[in-house]
Amino acid sequence: MASPFPGMDPYLEHPEIWPGVHLLLIAALAEALGPQLRPKYSVSVEVRMYETSGDQALLVGIPDVAIQRAKPQAEVVPTAVAVAPLPQPVQVRVPMPLTIRQGYLEVREVTTKEVVTAIELLSPINKRSGRGRQTYESKREQVLSSATHFVEIDLLRAYEPMAMFGAEGPSDYRILVSRSEQRPIASLYAFSVQNSIPAFALPLRSGDLEPTVDLQGLLNEIYERSGYDLKLDYGVEPVPPLTDAEAVWASGLLK
After folding, report:
1. Distance (Å, rounded) from C-alpha 204 to C-alpha 211?
2. What share of the chain is helix, strand, coil (3-state, %, to 5)?
3. Cα distance between residue 46 and residue 84, in whole Å
4. Which of 21, 34, 76, 149 lies 20 to 30 Å from 1, alpha-carbon distance?
């Protein structure tokens, strides 16, 4: 069954759902682009690692640090003497360091092995303030300072968007296409939950035929093939919640 939403399904953004969607969409992009890029280019899935702990684990659906109080034990206190009760221990969990692996795509020229285009699909760990965002921003700056084209796909409404100048007003989602020869100017596709995901041309070497990236089609295929209509609870509010106006609009769709 197809998603009831015309574009990005906001229920896919749930912290427990998004990691799976991220993996499937990265794989679908690689599978779709590979045949179109042959024989001059190859596309590969690369992995970046993030160190996180404590509440940062929530970003990838890992249970948060929990604090539970032990049941108070019965105290035996002599009636004739006032004795202060002994402090009872509290059971806690200490934050354990976790290594999060996140995939991204690189398009390389076959003969030179040079990275021509980097494609990033953001996750909460990239956007929320902390070490994850700092690590990603550092990598982002390196790419933007190089001769590599850069595509950044943000299908998450939560947290602050990545830095850019000249964007007109807020938007739910963003696709940034930065061609190396045009920097600092880049193309921004900003759209809302009520819009379909816009297609865009994948930047390559000058003069080469650039394939069209149809994220909407790929996401629709993933939704139906993976049976997300059976996994998502459309009877509750999505995470993060929609605005009041968007919630009214979504309610009409879901009916």
Report:
1. 9
2. 30, 25, 45
3. 60
4. 34
pTM as predicted = 0.83
8 A C-beta contact, residue 26 and residue 219: no
pLDDT of residue 91: 87
Percent of the chain with pLDDT over 90: 73
Under the banding of pLDDT at 50, 70 and 90, the label for residue 58 is very low
- CA–CA separation, 28 and 215 (whole Å): 9
DSSP codes, 1-28: ---SSSS--GGGGSTTTHHHHHHHHHHH
88-118: per-residue pLDDT in tens? 899 887 766 677 788 999 999 999 999 999 9
Q: What are the distances in angstroms from CA 98 to CA 95, 215, 216, 243? A: 9, 30, 32, 33
Q: pLDDT (tens digit, 9 = 90+) per residue, 42-54?
A: 999 998 877 766 5
Measured in degrees and rounded to the nearest 5, phi and psi for residue 101 equal -105, 130
Is the Cβ–Cβ distance between 124 and 60 less than 8 Å? yes
Q: Which two tokens stand for residue 111?
A: 């003969």
Count Cβ atoms within 10 A of the Cβ of residue 76 and give its class: 0-12 exposed, 13-18 middle, 19 or more buried.
exposed
H/E segment holding residue 153: strand 149-154
Q: Record the tokens describing residue 66, joined without a space.
A: 């929990």
User: Before 78, cis peptide (omega within 30)?
Assistant: no
Cis amide leading into 10 (omega within 30)? no
In degrees to the nearest 10, what's the CA dihedral of 201, 204, 208, 211?
-30
